[in-house]
Amino acid sequence: MAKKWPVAVNAAAGLVLAGFIGWQFIGGDGEDAAPAEPVVAEVPAEATPLEAPRAEGATGVDRERISNADAEPGNWLSHGRSYNEQRFSPLDQITTENIGELSLAWSLDTDTTRGLEATPIVVDGTMYMSLSWGVTIAVDAKTGEELWRFDPEVPGEWGRYGCCDVVNRGVAVWKGRVYVASFDGRLFALDAKDGSVVWEVNTVPGPPYTITGAPRVFNDKVVIGNGGGEYGVRGYITAYDTETGEQAWRFYTVPGDPSLPLENPELEAAVPTWKGGEWWKVGGGGTAWDSMVFEPETDTLYVGTGNGSPWTREIRSPGGGDNLYLSSIIALDADTGRMKWYYQTTPGDNWDYTATQPLMLADIEIDGSTRKVIMQAPKNGFFYVLDRMTGELISANPFSTVTWASHVDLETGRPVETGEGEYGDRTAFVLPSANGAHNWHPMAFSPDTGLVYIPTQDIAGIYSLSEQWKEQGEFTPKKNWWNTGIDWTDYIDAINALPEIPMEKGYLKAWDPATGEMKWQAEYPAPLNGGVLATAGNLVFQGTADGFFHAYNAETGERVWSQRIQTGIVAAPVTYMVDGEQYVSVLAGWGGVNIVSGDARTSAAAKFGNDGRLLTFKIGGGEELPELAMLDQSIPEWPALTASEEEVRQGEIGYATYCMLCHGALAISPGVTPDLRRMGESTREHFQDIVRGGILSDNGMASFADHLSEEDVEAIKSYIQKRALEDRARQQPVN
Ligand code: CA
């Protein structure tokens, strides 16, 4: 089994296939060589230390104000700034001319080492944002002083139920309240002044549902979806009354158990598109875990839906069929939840090709006439422009490397599959991977340049059909664990067979949605970089995996400013104004899908740790980030391996099935959760207590006693030991 690796680096890197998961093991700081007791790195804060309640800004935010967001460009009132979610700010004090003087105004330590994905909301000098788990803070936008903190106190073991870290993408504000969903599926209305709970409602039946998305608010309704498509859940979104928390409507995205009545009439058309399987036993998927856009003009809520559960269509729906409404853009009547139209980007999804990526509304000129469009760059690699009034497909052009389909037929609106994506009788390498050509990281549109700025990557996914299905025609779901239908043994064997793990690149692409052409691109050493902000200063801002915050000339793509920030950025920046000064602010904290798909070779978090911070810049800010020391990346001594080859192989399969999704393929962590090769002696001694006993469950490292026997855990430890010994023997710097 000895493998030849060119360098002892994170292998998972490019080839990992999914949005993966995140629970916390011993903290995300990557250190564990010390022979002490396992260290708790992230202590959930107790509720609401409140000294000076000055956070009154959200009081007057309503439909009128958000609809006219351009009239108050100093604020950032909703998730994508305005209801059209273009993430374009009319502020133009910071420009390509003076950006050389942009520097740190202040930074705030968020007390988390897990991924930070939220877009802050800014109202009249106060910022509101969520951190990991749904912890929410209010911050003075001028000084960076934390005004209040709310902790939903999510049970740490819930971390095991999330595919891609314990992240949260933001809050919504409305009439004096802040709305946020916690990782365990509860929706909260908080008083914007002090963070106290006005009401709380549980939106899910239990695990393995999770929520990572930001709620949206309109017409005195707050709407939220959920996630869990990798585990096996049934997707739905729900609207609640903003005053009372009472349910207004719920829309299920896929049919449930056929022996039960349909919950919403739209499912009647969906039922015949699911053929022959028992999808409802693993939920079917279609989770609406991120994108939702409200349009006041027509009172429409546009929602993106996720992949199938399980991923593999042969298991989910052996008779074929499109499996509505997976991987679709759905237009709903915002007041009733009834569907107006849908467009399915990936009929019969087979690869985790979600259409949950950010949706954006714009009026753009196409072939001489102004069209009211909705745009999306979903995981499957095509950039879609639809008429948002009718759902008519206007164009769909590949914005990244795509091997699973040759093109989208504009007559039928359907992708034409090449067969390259089939994996029934072979292990297939497919582009894009389940990471997506573009994932959740927000894109931005500048009406000044007419360009959409998209964070993209080229990563090959490895897909192989479940052995159990191939051999017995059966699929036995694992309770509260991954049920994708993918065979992880074939997956690791495919990785092991590679001579080396290729470096993967990421890009920022400036895309002309009217012509379907790329205008310029910036190339990055790593995939899965941050969300994007565009401004009227002819600027585009983006943070990166390798620990930089960059600005570009929006027109030409010239990089005009860079700041090293010591950890990876995945969140999207915002810009706002206080007392006549323009600020640019971004949450810096590596994580999300990068928890395993990130590459330790390029990950700033792997080098410097992952202390989450809110960073805010202005012209002449003059502050400096506290310098972080490079982490000790060495692998400690381990005793000689005594386990048999068979035991190590059993451990390798167990690791790939249960550990890899958070701790990295080949036991190399990209820097969010601990690198297990660096376990100290004490952690090794307590390995059974941790993995089966759940002694670190408060941190997010839940017990796996429901799936792993003591013997399994010993075997996994032997596999980690083997990997540690291999990489230590190379005596090279790990990164
Ligand atoms: Ca998924």
Overview of this protein structure:
By secondary structure, the protein is an alpha+beta fold. Among the domains are: 31-85 and 118-439, 8 Propeller (Methanol Dehydrogenase, Chain A); 645-731, Orthogonal Bundle (Cytochrome Bc1 Complex, Chain D, domain 2). Helices cover 12% and strands 27% of the residues. A hairpin with a 4-residue loop joins β8 (177-181) and β9. The structure holds calcium ion. The site of calcium ion has 7 residues, from loops.
Question: Strand order within the widest sheet?
Answer: 1-33-34-35-36
Mean pLDDT equals 91
* Terminal Cα span: 23 Å
Q: Specify the number of helices.
A: 13
What's a quick, concise take on this entry?
This protein is an alpha+beta fold. It is built from 13 helices and 39 strands. The model is unreliable at 1-53 (pLDDT under 50).
